[in-house]
Structure formats: C-alpha cells, structure tokens
Amino acid sequence: MLMAVRRASLFWAICLFCILALAGRAQEKPYFVTYSQDLEEPGNLELETKSALLRPDGGNRGGAMAMELEYGTRAWWTTELYLDGQTTAQDSTVFTGWRLENRIRPLMREMAVNPVIYVEYENTSGADKTVLEVVGHDGQADLAGPNSELRMQHQHEAELKLILSSNLKSWNVSENFIAEKNLGHEPWEFGYAVGAARPLRSAASGRNCTFCAEKLMAGVEAYGGLGDTSSLTLRDTSHYIAPLVGWQLPKGVRLSFSPGFGLTASSLTRIYRVGFALEFEQVGGWLHHLQGGGA
Amino acid sequence: MMRRTLGILCLVLSAALAVGATASSRWEHVPAKDHARANPLANKPEATAAGAMVYRDHCLQCHKAEAQGDGKRRPSLRSERIRNASDGDIEWFLRQGDLGHGMPSWSSLPEAQRWQVVAYLRSVQ
Asked: Are the beta carbons of B108 and A37 separated by less than 8 Å?
C-alpha cells in the first residue's frame, strides 16, 4: 500500500516537473469563438479548457467544458483535438463528443488581411452545450431538453471556416465565415464570428511582472447564425456580443474570461465563459529526444 | 460535382503552398520602404532590456539562450546576415516570419515589441 502511494507521488512529481520544465508563454488572443491568424508555434502543444455557464429558457442551469489539445504541426499548419462534456443541474453529467480540426495558412507571407482555412470533423451529440460556434438557426430551445433526449441526436458534421485576420500595430481584427454540414441529409448551415483585441500596453516594460498592462488583453467578439441553404436569413437566428479579458501569467498559463449577451429572442440571455490554457514548448523535439532521435 | 470542387480546392491549395515554400531567401524581398525604416527605440538601453524579455518569452525556445541557434534548422541570430541587415529588414522579417521553413510570423506581437527585439538582437552581435 505504502509502496503504491510512494510510486503514485513519484509519478505526479515527475509529471509536475515535466510540466514546469516545458511550459512556455505565447501571446494569444482572448477569443473564445473567433479564430485569428495565430497558429501554434511548430513543435508546441497547448492544453486549453474552455468552460461555458448557461441557462436556456425552460431548461436547467448547466456548465459545459471543451478540452482542447492544440499542436503546431508546421509554422503554417495547426492541428487540434477537442473533447466535450457538460453537466446540467438536476439532470446528469455527460461526455458529448469530440472534434478534430486543422487550420492552414495557404499563403506564406504576411498581408493586410491573412486568410486561414479551417476544416473540422465533428462527432458530437445534441447535448453539446459548449456553444463554441453558432450556425443556422441554433437557439436556446436546442439546449433546453433533458440530457437523456439530447444525447440521442447524433451530429456527424463537417465544418469549413474561412478565417480572415489582420494585425495592425497592437490590434488584431478577425472575421470568420462558417459553413457547417450535418453529414446526414441536412442543408448547409452558415454562421459568422468577428472579434477585435489588443494588449493594454504595447511595449514590454522590461520588468518581470505578473500583473502589468502588457500581460493583459482586452477585446470584444460577436457571433451568430445566418440560416441555411433553404433559408438564408437572420430570422430565428441567435446572435451574441461578448467583451473579453485575457491574462498571461508566468509559466505559460493563460486565463481568459468573457460574459456573453444574447441579442435576439432565440439567443441565450447570457453565457459566462472561462478559459484556462497551458502551453508546452517544443514538445515535438522533446518526444524525438526521448526516442533517441535528437530534435 | 462535389468531388470536382474538392479536387480543384486541393490543387489551388497545394499550388499556393508550393509557391510559398519555394520562395527564395526572404531577405531578398524586403520592400525598400521597410528596408529604410530606422528603429524608433534604438539607443534606448531600456528597449534592449525589454527586448531581452520578449526574446526569452517567444524566441529562446528555438534560437536558444545566447541566440546561438540549435545547430540544426533554427539558425544562430549572431551572424553576418543580421549584422549587415538594417533595423527595418529585421523588423520586416519578424513580421513576415518564414512559414515554409519553420519560422513563425510575429505580426501578432505589438509593433513596439518587435522593435524592442531588434534592439536586443543588435546588442548580442
């Protein structure tokens, strides 16, 4: 027994050491829904959780979490895996599926507006409440049923996004156009997300500080549905506006927070989001070393 | 129909990638306007110190602590090339990166921080 406890502590101590030794810093935008041109640096791995707290009309309060593993495959190509789950008050906690996504910068040079192509495959259930994209006529009514019913709806979906993003002085401005298709016989659904963000101070202070303006980012994002191929309209669609705050802490830890406000009758009244990210630098080379290959 | 569209999309994408990846050395393509830009933070010791921190946070992982490179694909930044480049050349290169060869674009850093890194790189030559 004692032996097992010791072995377990040793295991966790090694894990902690590896985490602290590898963790690094990246200056990423505090967006939750919008994507910018920022890709993961090649060889780096980011572990991120994005939580959403919400309460649909006629439903119970719930919390959903997406866990994301983001890897910089190349300087122009990032791969990301999402695992989603949720818990609903007076109901249950369920795993709601997974998503796999690739983001590619087709042009190798920096332009005034930089395109990124996003391709995703989704295998989730109707109980997914992460609300990390809003398309078609998605609305709060879709989220109000009991988990036992929502879980029965399978969503095998392909999603394409065209991300356009510009970095101007200290600002990032990004626009995303979304087309999503349930691989069953459903029409293409469309949506959008736009965002702008900047650090509170542009120049680095040259001090080792944790709570200083250059480590804080502020911004705003707006997103919503645009109907589908059979009714390309704003009628019965959801739209949100959400201020954003991000804080870059030492050791590659990043926190972000965003209260989102629904703008139409079918939108949720409010969504509160919290993000926690941890970046591990040059994991690719490190793994290669372990196998005796060198970086 | 769907297949043909996909085929065309793949072709366009791979052509764009190939063009980008085979572009010859970036340094030959610095626009004259960027080449001529002077570092607004040059000769400010605090800019060099701040640049060292930006370097530690974002560049050290690949170019190593003394900017000596990793001896493989990540080059040393204490080189003839950096010494001969103008401040504007280096700031332009950082903004562009070289995505086809593993150097990220640093347009996501505020412009002031790119100039701080340029000041730091000058100090380690």
From this structure: yes
**Which tokens go with B85?**
């480049």
Count of domains in chain A? 1
CA distances from A26 to A250, A260, A286, B61 (A): 10, 25, 18, 11
CA–CA separation, B77 and A179 (whole Å):
43
Residue A99 structure tokens? 């998503």
Residue-wise DSSP of B28-97? GG--HHHHT---TTTT-HHHHHHHHHHHHHHTHHHH-TTS---SSSS--SSSHHHHHS-HHHHHHHHHH-
**Cα A195 to Cα A248: distance, rounded to the nearest angstrom:** 19
Name the band, by pLDDT with cuts 50, 70 and 90, for residue A66. Answer: very high
Give the mean pLDDT of A190-208.
95
pLDDT tens by residue, B63-120: 999 999 999 899 999 999 999 999 999 999 999 999 999 999 999 999 999 999 999 9
Which domain does A114 fall in, by range?
2-294
Q: What is the least distance, in Å, from the CA of A250 to any CA of chain B?
A: 10
Q: For the domain that residue A186 is a member of, what is the CATH number?
A: 2.40.160.40
Whole-prediction pTM? 0.88
Question: What class does CATH assign to B27-123?
Answer: mainly alpha
Instruction: Write out chain B residues lying below 8 Å of A104, CB-based.
Output: 13
Sign of CA dihedral A109, A111, A116, A117: negative
Q: CB distance B58–A39 less than 8 Å? A: no
Largest Cα–Cα distance of chain B, in whole Å? Answer: 62
Contacts of A106 in chain B (CB under 8 A): 13, 16-17, 20
Question: Both tokens of residue A93?
Answer: 């906690």
- In three-state form (DSSP H/G/I as H, E/B as E, the rest C), the secondary structure along chain A is CHHHHHHHHHHHHHHHHHHHHHEECCCCCCCCCCCCCCCCCCCCEEEEEEEEEECCCCCCCEEEEEEEEEEEEECCEEEEEEEEEEEECCCCEEEEEEEEEEEECCCCCCCCCEEEEEEEEEEEECCCCCCCCCCECCCHHHHCCCHHHHCCCEEEEEEEEEEEEEEECCEEEEEEEEEEEECCCCCEEEEEEEEEEEECCCCCCCCCCCCCHHHEEEEEEEEEEEEECCECCCCCCCEEEEEEEEEECCCCEEEEEEEEEECCCCCCCEEEEEEEEEEECCHHHHHHHHCCCCC
